[in-house]
Design goal:
By secondary structure, this protein is an alpha/beta fold. The chain is 53% helix and 14% strand. The protein has helices spanning 3-21, 25-31, 49-53, 75-87, 102-107, 116-129, 131-135, 140-160, 163-172, 196-207, and strands at 37-42, 60-65, 92-98, 176-182, 189-191. The termini are far apart. The structure holds cobalt (II) ion. The site of cobalt (II) ion (CO) has 7 residues, from α5.
């Protein structure tokens, strides 16, 4: 069968499987969502957020784009963050990168990629901010891996800069922002242990927005 048609067969099988475990499954699903997590990850097809986190539909609010960027003027990403933090009241915001990221690798070459240039320039900016550390890594693969980690860290900082995160955290102790990296070679998630409180205190010297 054509792959396209197969998807609808897969969907029916999935519905049947869910209903066999719980006849009320879709009644509950339609009633609303209250996820604890906002996941911001790469659009790469190999990294399905729910699956790698072992979470069911309704348990994680998801935003994905090339190289898991949180660009300051990206209305799309910031609408997702605002809605998740202010309205869904998620407790954890995760920026998840992955080793071998095509976007990060592309940003390390001099290839002109047209419309993708300004998007990938965000990653070049991360490189510039951490140039000393990155230039000191001789092995190209190791350097790319470190850039993946530093990119996640910088995107976390972009999340922490937002008024909704600053205000709600100071009032309620949530959300906490985390940086993760997914490794395609073993399927494991690595917590980069981003020092959330330290970053928040530090950036508030410049990005402070009053409660
Ligand atoms: Co990627």
């Amino acid at each position: 069968m054509e792959r396209y048609k197969q998807v609808f067969e897969n969907n029916k099988a999935w519905v049947g499987q869910k209903l066999s475990h719980d006849p009320e499954y879709f009644v509950k699903l339609a009633a609303g969502q209250s996820p604890d997590f906002l996941y911001i990850g790469c659009a790469d097809s190999r990294i399905p957020a729910n699956e790698i986190m072992g979470l069911e539909p309704g348990e994680v609010f998801v935003h994905r784009n090339i190289a898991n960027l949180v660009v300051n003027t990206d209305l799309n990403a910031h609408s997702v963050i605002e809605y998740a933090v202010e309205h869904l009241r998620v407790k954890h915001v995760i920026v998840c990168g992955h080793y071998g990221c095509g976007g990060v690798n592309a940003a390390m070459t001099s290839q002109d990629l047209g419309l993708l240039n300004p998007w990938l320039r965000e990653i070049r900016d991360v490189y510039r901010l951490h140039r000393k550390e990155l230039d000191a890594i001789e092995d190209a693969t190791a350097r790319a891996k470190r850039l993946v980690e530093l990119n996640v860290q910088e995107q976390c900082i972009h999340v922490i800069k937002t008024a909704c995160v600053q205000k709600r955290y100071l009032k309620e102790g949530y959300p906490i922002v985390h940086g993760w990296v997914f490794d395609l070679h073993d399927g494991l998630l690595k917590d980069l242990d981003i020092p959330f409180e330290g970053i928040l205190a530090n950036i508030r010297e410049i990005y402070r927005l009053e409660v």
